[in-house]
Design a protein that fits this description.
The chain contains seven helices and no strands. The protein is rod-shaped. By secondary structure, the protein is mostly helical. It has helices at residues 2-5, 8-40, 56-130, 134-141, 146-155, 158-169, 173-189. The longest helix is centred in the middle third of the chain and has 75 residues, at 56-130. Among the domains are: 60-123; 132-189, no CATH class.
Length: 203
């Protein structure tokens, strides 16, 4: 038995067994335990992958871009609303312009008709006055507005108009002033109007 225990092979085997046993116990209690403990520690912020990297300046820039995009969308919608409103107003203006053109054309037609009718009335009055004496013409013109009298005198021959104004100046002071006023208005519209009217004639 002693020979077996003192045998080199026995010594080597025992030493090897002790080595592997010591190695196993050392690795099991220290190395792997440290590794397991290390894996249980929370990951460091610096250990995050690159796609999880957060930059405050980049976040602010992205936020500003979103705000500008939203503001641009609002502005675009406002411009579209203004365009629609301008289109509607343009149509309304075109409709109003057309209505005004129609009204102007109708007004011009009525003015022409009125002027033609006025000419006919003046012609009729001229025929009536032509058959009257100056005193009779003055009596008729006394009831007429000044504008109509001026038009009537303007359409007469110069000598007939002068005779009527002369007769009017002799009716009385008010009519004498009216004759002077009518003569001045005739002079304004017709330089060759009768000037032989005694504007300063006594009543």
């Amino acid at each position: 038995m002693n020979r077996i225990l003192q045998s080199p092979l026995t010594v080597i085997g025992a030493a090897g067994l002790m080595f592997f046993l010591t190695l196993f116990l050392t690795l099991n209690t220290t190395h792997f335990g440290a590794v397991n403990a290390a894996t249980k520690e929370p990951p460091s912020p610096t250990d995050d992958p690159s796609w999880k990297f957060r930059n405050p300046e980049m976040d602010q820039w992205i936020s500003n871009m979103k705000e500008e995009r939203e503001a641009l969308a609002v502005r675009t919608q406002e411009l579209k609303d203004w365009e629609q409103r301008l289109t509607v107003e343009s149509r309304e203006i075109a409709s109003i312009t057309q209505a005004v053109s129609v009204a102007q054309a109708d007004y011009d037609r009525r003015v022409v008709m009125f002027k033609e009718q006025e000419k006919e009335n003046i012609k009729k009055q001229l025929k009536v006055v032509s058959g009257m004496s100056p005193d009779g013409a003055v009596a008729m013109m006394t009831e007429m507005p000044d504008n109509e009298v001026v038009k009537l005198l303007f359409s007469m021959k110069t000598d007939i108009a002068g005779a009527i104004l002369d007769a009017m100046s002799k009716v009385g002071q008010p009519q004498a002033k009216r004759a002077a006023m009518l003569a001045q208005r005739l002079k304004d519209v017709l330089p060759n109007a009768p000037t032989n009217t005694p504007a300063n004639a006594s009543p």
